TrEMBL record:
It is an enzyme of class 2 (transferase). Keywords: Aminotransferase, Pyridoxal phosphate, Transferase. Its EC number is 2.6.1.1. This is Aspartate aminotransferase. Pfam families: Aminotran_1_2 (PF00155). The keyword Cell membrane does not apply. Homodimer. GO terms for cellular component: cytosol. Signal peptide: none annotated. InterPro entries: Aminotransferase_I/II_large, Asp_trans, NHTrfase_class1_PyrdxlP-BS, PyrdxlP-dep_Trfase, PyrdxlP-dep_Trfase_major, PyrdxlP-dep_Trfase_small.
Length: 407
């Protein structure tokens, strides 16, 4: 008998299982509204032109090689990434209060940050929104956190933010709890607090001595404006908070399989950074030793070159603009069909995803009867919509809402 016979079966990750089912489906009009990746109006992946240009320049640069990076990664990348997040003129840089570390995309940044807090600060409690990105729970528990709490976030009846519930739950958080906050374009709901609500959240967290851990996966991708999308993080920093933030460049650069990410930490006393850097270096050494270069080098060259940076900003506006256009189109089609209920939330939400409010049975109908693939929580990726499938999707949703009985 194999010594591995004791290994138990594990359930598949829903979103990847859904993507596999979509790829295996031979139905000609199938639609993928599950995967969190940008698509053109032709339904194709988009390699950003500025990324193509930069890759060609890298390939033709005879000075480059494949030597190891330092354990904390490409410094020109991590510095530029932290400055993109906080603003290059933010006084925390001049004051020496910022540490940036290249990571294996946003997930790697979350894990490295969670490992650091668990091992070095002995953090035990973390809070995540209900709902949130499913991997938050696993990442933090696997890093050694003892207890996962949730705070209310989605108001299903009104299809918007349950701010009252959120505040009530955070009021009960023990001192020093780590609070996972979505910097912008909340996944999966697409609903963000207003600036006044962010200020109230900061007031509470300051009073309760809670640590903000921001997940910033969509900077620039939410509204098309980098500064607007990082406002919440910058506000907390301006208030004097010590902040941990995981950044991903998968969505806003289209570098999904290059795993380009950054962990940004802002501390109140610059003298502590030497020890923090040393401990993070040890965590990296025991995990992956040092990160890959290619994706980070692309991002670094774009962020550090004014012309390339301007081109990239244009690409961001194009992507976010198409998403906004598709939101409006879906809402208009559903209203034209007279689909019961209100669909205003589709356009009031921002970013890649929309939390539709469809029931599990309606989702099952869409997947099994209409070959429209979306997860059980009824979150759809707006990127999967285009001018060729919008009518089909709207009619299918209308059919699901009007014909699928809950009992």
């Amino acid at each position: 008998m194999s010594r591995f016979a004791c290994v138990e079966a594990a359930p598949p990750v829903e979103i990847f299982a859904l993507n596999k089912a979509y790829k295996e489906d031979t139905f000609p009009d199938k639609v993928d509204l599950g995967i969190g990746a940008y698509r053109t109006d032709e339904g194709k992946p988009w390699v950003l032109p500025v990324v193509k240009k930069t890759e060609k320049a890298i390939a033709n640069d005879e000075t480059l090689n494949h030597e190891y990076l330092g354990q904390l990664g490409l410094e020109s990348f991590s510095q530029a990434a932290s400055k993109m997040l906080l603003g290059a003129d933010n006084p925390v840089f001049k004051d020496g209060k910022v540490l940036g570390v290249q990571t294996l995309s946003g997930t790697g940044a979350l894990r490295l940050g969670a490992d650091f807090l668990s091992h070095c600060l002995k953090s035990k409690d973390f809070y995540m929104s209900a709902p949130t990105w499913p991997n938050h729970r696993k990442v933090f528990l696997d890093a050694g956190f003892a207890t996962c709490h949730t705070y209310r976030y989605w108001n299903a009846a009104e299809r918007n933010l349950d701010f009252k519930g959120m505040i009530e739950d955070l009021e009960n958080a023990p001192e020093d709890s780590v609070i996972i906050l979505h910097a912008c374009a909340h996944n999966p709901t697409g609903v963000d607090p207003t600036r006044d609500q962010w200020k109230e959240i900061a007031d509470l967290m300051e009073r309760k001595k809670l640590l903000p851990f921001f997940d910033c996966a969509y900077q620039g991708f939410a509204t098309g404006d980098l500064v607007t999308d990082s406002w919440a993080v910058c506000y907390f920093v301006s208030r004097g908070f010590e902040v941990v933030c995981a950044q991903s460049f998968a969505k806003n650069f289209g570098l999904y399989n290059e795993r380009a990410g950054n962990l940004t930490m802002v501390v109140s006393d610059p003298s502590v950074l030497t020890n923090c850097r040393a401990q993070i270096t040890l965590l990296v050494r025991g995990n992956y030793s040092n990160p890959p270069c290619h994706g980070a080098l692309i991002v670094s060259k774009v962020l550090n070159d004014s012309q390339l940076f301007s081109e990239w900003q244009g690409h961001i506006k194009e992507m976010s603009g198409r998403i906004i256009k598709m939101r409006a189109a879906l809402k208009a089609k559903l209203e034209e069909l007279g689909t019961p209920g209100t669909w205003d939330h589709i356009v009031s939400q921002i970013g890649m995803f929309s939390y539709t409010g469809l029931s599990p049975k309606q989702v099952k109908f869409l997947v099994e009867q209409r070959h429209i693939y979306l997860p059980k929580d009824a979150r759809i990726s707006i990127c999967g919509l285009n001018s060729k499938n919008i009518d089909y999707v709207a009619k299918a949703i209308h059919e699901a809402v009007t014909t699928v009985k809950e009992n």
